[in-house]
Design goal:
By secondary structure, the chain is of the alpha+beta class. The protein is 21% helix and 23% strand. Bound molecules: iron/sulfur cluster. The site of iron/sulfur cluster has 12 residues, from loops. GO terms for molecular function: 4 iron, 4 sulfur cluster binding; metal ion binding; oxidoreductase activity.
Amino acid sequence: MARTRGTDACPGALQVHRAADGALARIRLPGGTLTAAQLAALARVASEYGSSTLELTARGNIQVRGITDEAAAADAIAGAGLLPSATHERVRNIVASPLSGRAGGNADVRPWVAGLDAAIRAEPRLAGLGGRFWFSVDDGHADVSGLCADVGVHAFPDGCALLLAGRDTGLRLGADEVVETLVVIATRFATTRGSAWRVKELDDLERLLPGVELGAAPFSAVTRPPVGWIAQDQPGSEGRVALGAAVPLGVLPARVAEYLAAIEAPLVITPWRSVLVCDLDEAVADVALRVLAPSGLVFDENSPWLTVSACTGSPGCAHSAADVRADAARALKPDAGMHRHFVGCERACGSPLAAEVLLATGDGYRQLR
Ligand code: SF4
């Protein structure tokens, strides 16, 4: 079914969203990757022009809200190298297996992500793709394929499956075909989409891939980030360590972001609102863990924070019936079982596919899904 909204309201760093608490900028991070210097720059943007927090999104991007000087914030974001294209900034939505090339997986997908980002920016027709369309690149962990992005690839030991709306098309690609195929499919969508913003809204998929027959079941949805001490085992990074830190409700204080940046290691923001600090030697990882653990970041895989999330809610969002983040924090329980996502209205922003979605009614919560 086609969405009725005719304009693309997804925010970027230049086209900000007017939220109840001020201007909100969203910075796309293809594959979730950023350098320590870039995270430090975003922390400064949040401290100097925003609400002093960074929000991690369900697509592995970062938001700054409550911005008082939009031009200065955009300049600082561009100066950090996080705004490489003014025309395509909102369509660089690429989620990738966050540990790829470092731990496990069937392929190192990082070059594909970089190549895909460059190819998207080089195709003028993709400027009209829309900020909701996204790409997934799964290295075989089966972590991001279950997010049901619009188009993606999933690396198996003997080749790469092309996915549409999270389902296997049956088509297998060589490594050298991945980027071009994803861009071709996205361009076909951008030029034939009508009023649809997502592949799942199309009545037929023939326009994207003639003769396609989708597999019956999508990949299972993952809701938990990798946390704690993660031994890296892939060629070139053996013996190194990645630290996985979940960020409660995705709200990262700028001060804590500065601590993370001070480690001066490569960083990955995951679609489960967590940060990976990568390529550490064991001694540095040990010290970093001791410094970061008291800061509110979560390194314990049994933490109840891993089973709860929330949309923005009040006071940041005018649509909300409640301060859903505060309510989610109050409702933490040790053995929650299924993931619970608290939302302030029926739009249910950021809802994981495999979660109990709880809708604020103004008088408590009811189950939306
Ligand atoms: S779900 Fe509703 S209340 Fe929550 S952020 Fe989205 S629009 Fe706002």
